[in-house]
Amino acid sequence: AFQWKSKNKLFLFFPAYTMVQDDRKENAFERSNSLLYNFFDKPVTWFHDVIVKPNQKSYPWYHQKFRRVPTIDQCYTDDAVCQFEADAQFKRDRQVDSEILNILRQRFEDCVHYETPDHKTKCADILETYNKAAEHWFIKYGDLGFYGQSKAAYMKQKHRMIWERRHGPVGSGMKTQESNDH
Q1: 86, 154: one domain
Q2: pLDDT digits (tens, 9 = 90+) for 27-36
Q3: pLDDT above 60 for 42
Q4: Domain encompassing residue 82
Q5: Residues 27, 85 within the same domain
Q6: Both 49 and 82 in a single domain?
Q7: Separation of alpha carbons 177 and 182, rounded Å
Q8: Confidence band (pLDDT; 50, 70, 90) for 22?
Q9: Res. 7: pLDDT tops 70
């Protein structure tokens, strides 16, 4: 930081910002405001800086963490607030899963761009991871539409489980009555 003085103002230059300080004296009103402010703020600031902050664990916060709320299967049918929170949680989960899928897709595209002649062998594991993640994303969120809600996803999961119990894994075809009888 360096200083530059012009008439009665002192400019302090820092790389990120500039502060202006006045050389003039404070009048009685400003002094009383400063005294009152410092009377209440200084003890609280001191307590926070000396007592509270050293006794806290420091966690790296990279993004906002939301408390997990009950899912739609844990809500009562007449509890609109719980259902709203479950829908909000579902939408956040969908955004996170979609972003993870975008990151995996971008990693595969970067790998192909970087390893172009041999990309089929060198990027195979990334492509397999992406395809598996895309399949799981579609199992959970596919065919729900843009405004898909948690109740629709829950019903989709229920119908899939019933199908798999009756006919085996999805995509293997329907079992006939003869194979179901034993």
Answers
A1: yes
A2: 888 888 888 9
A3: yes
A4: 72-173
A5: no
A6: no
A7: 10
A8: low
A9: no
